[in-house]
Amino acid sequence: MSEQLDATAARLVSSRDPEVRTRGTVDLARIEEAVRDILVAVGEDPDRRGLKETPRRVAHAYAELFAGLRVDPTDVLDTTFEEGHQELIMVCDIEVQSFCEHHLLPFLGRAHIGYVPGESGCVAGLSKLARLVEVYARRPQVQERLTSQIADCLHTTLDAAGVLVVVECEHTCMTMRGIRKAGARTVTSAVRGTLQSDPRTRNEAMELLRRTAV
Ligand SMILES: Nc1nc2c(ncn2[C@@H]2O[C@H](COP(=O)(O)OP(=O)(O)OP(=O)(O)O)[C@@H](O)[C@H]2O)c(=O)[nH]1
Ligand SMILES: [Zn+2]
Q1: Structural domains of the chain sorted by starting position, each given as residue range(s) with its CATH number in brackets
Q2: Whole-prediction pTM value?
């Protein structure tokens, strides 16, 4: 785990994104203190045997769950291949595990990403699309922003001619608390470039998505 955090810190220092660069490293001690305070505030005894290690565990869990705050998403798209492919590429059913920034509770589901490469015909490695989802999801988020950040990054960094991102998630802040409506799914989309301006390509992408997404 500490190796993972060190690697994250090293990337942070060299990041091209100034916002990422200034975020510093995770303050584990401070999270531990805060978790201890929460346990006291809800009426628990943070010194009882079962809870003694909890602040430390939560601190490490948060460092992992919010690791995306310290990764520059453009780094993910560094490796590309000149394939001369200028038609639609779709990766469907990419698992999404993120945290609603309003309640710090998870929202979980899937992302579907389609793009048409730009004039260079440069394509990204398929796993990089899933990595991109991971970088943006491992931050305090709202689903709409997660969706548009993925689309914008592909559009600008990969110089894709067109991008379509659809995200569907269940929010535990709506199922475990509050209104408690289990099963409600939120679907968001972001469309950029030719997939926005050319209805034929967009319809082709939507039709593929309907046929292939589970
Ligand atoms: N648009 C959007 N809303 C979200 C997302 N995640 C959580 N929310 C909503 O954020 C809102 C926060 O509303 P508030 O009224 O400030 O908080 P609250 O009193 O806890 O709201 P309730 O959940 O209705 O009890 C809630 O309606 C949540 O359902 C998201 O990804 N996108
Ligand atoms: Zn929420």
Answers
A1: 2-70 (1.10.286.10), 76-212 (3.30.1130.10)
A2: 0.89
Q: Is 100 annotated as a binding residue?
A: yes
Which residues have C-beta within 8 Å of that of residue 180, sequence separation ≥ 6?
174
ipTM for the predicted complex comes to 0.93
| Atom number in ligand 1 closest to CA 169 | 31
Q: What is the pLDDT of residue 214?
A: 58
Residue 45 Cβ inside 6 Å of ligand 1? The answer reads no
**Cα distance between residue 36 and residue 39, in whole Å:** 5
Name which residue sits closest to atom 25 of ligand 1, judged by CA.
178
Which protein residue has the closest C-alpha to ligand 1 atom 20? Answer: 178
What is the CA angle 121-138-202, rounded to 5? Answer: 35
